[in-house]
Amino acid sequence: TNEFAFTDDPFDKMPKLRARLLANENPLGISPNAKEALVKAADLGNRYAWMEFAQLKTLLATDEGVKPTNIMMSPGSSDILMAAADHFAKGGGTILTSTMTYDDLLQRAEKFGAKIKALPMTKDYKFDLPAIKANITPDVKMVYIVNPNNPTGTIIPTAELEAFIREVAPKVPVFIDEAYIDFFEPAERPKLGKLVSEGQNVILARTFSKIHGFAGLRLGYAIAQPEMLKTLHAYTNGEFAVSITTLMAGIASYKDVDWQNHCRAENAKARNYTTKALTDMGYEVIPSSANFILFPIRMKTSAFSNQMFANGIGIQTRDFNGQPYCRVSVGTMDEMAMFMDSFKKVVG
Ligand code: PLP
């Protein structure tokens, strides 16, 4: 099984936090345009959201180079992950992935009968695609890849990922969890939609929880072949689980490219500041392309976590191969300064 699990459950300590840096949320909040749309949506709360679904899917499909029928909306991407876990666990078989990745889908699939085969990452904490390719055996039902990866923040070069999908997807479905894709600079963002329009058996999972700041509002979607979406749909509560308020806010946020650029730039600034401050102290920070940073620490995870929380700083800790790590979400510059201040105190 995936050995990279939470070592602490910090959520009961949340109310006392000065800096909530444990869930990769957007510290800047939602777009002002999305707020306005939420208020307008209140007047439409009595209506089913048929037109709004169509409007958002058309926007997304146009940008991704797919058809609206290649898109299924959901209340957050977790629903897509869970549907895939349920479907591919049915009747047993193996889900192939790497160690040290997001394990919600994996844990669920394991609970419902799948075997999880998590291969070691490369030395620089990336998915080892050649190793995954070499392990595609007849019992493998699905490959799960997270790009950018959580918790390492690492990315797979786009050309390598595309070649991998073209080779593997004809044999076994490839699930790419792109929760953090919006943190790529727009010019460098992988455009895997074109592989879907080529007919490849790939499932892309997306969320508004990160750069759009919708973690509480709940909005996500899958991009895949229509037959695959139909299969996954059967394991969900249906698209109407997304409210008209969230949809209208989502449309406004999606169109507010200035807000997304602002959040991406602020994230990069605070991430660079924190990476440099930790590196200056002699810590080896894994280069991150997302809104969190992972680095090995020199204290036991429980002692470190307890002391950071006692200082009002919420972070996450994990043990991996006997090495303790801290994962800190990127907050505002003020929050990262508070984090560094407490970190220095705690590690002495
Ligand atoms: N996938 C990854 C890699 C994540 O880190 C998260 C949340 O942090 C999710 C999926 C689920 O996010 P949500 O259900 O809010 O879209």
- Termini separation comes to 35 Å
- CATH third-tier fold name of the largest domain: Aspartate Aminotransferase, domain 2
The radius of gyration is 20 Å
The arrangement of helices and strands along the chain is EHHEHEHEHEHEHEEHHHEHEEEH
Question: What does this entry look like structurally?
Answer:
This protein has helices at 32-42, 50-64, 78-89, 104-111, 129-134, 158-168, 193-197, 226-233, 244-255, 257-280, 301-310, 333-347, and strands at residues 19-20, 71-74, 94-98, 115-119, 140-146, 174-177, 202-207, 220-223, 292-296, 313-314, 316-320, 323-329. The chain has 348 residues and is an alpha/beta fold. The chain folds into 2 domains: 10-28 and 258-347, Aspartate Aminotransferase, domain 1; 32-255, Type I PLP-dependent aspartate aminotransferase-like (Major domain) (Aspartate Aminotransferase, domain 2, 3-Layer(aba) Sandwich), CATH 3.40.640.10. The chain has a 7-stranded mixed β-sheet with strand order 2-8-7-6-5-3-4, with helices on both faces. It has a 3-stranded antiparallel β-sheet with strand order 9-12-11, covered by helices on one side. Strands 1-10 form a two-stranded parallel sheet. Pyridoxal-5'-phosphate binds at residues 24, 76-78, 81, 102, 146, 150, 177, 179, 207, 209, 215, 220. Keywords: Aminotransferase, Pyridoxal phosphate, Transferase. Residues 21-341 form the Aminotransferase class I/classII large domain.
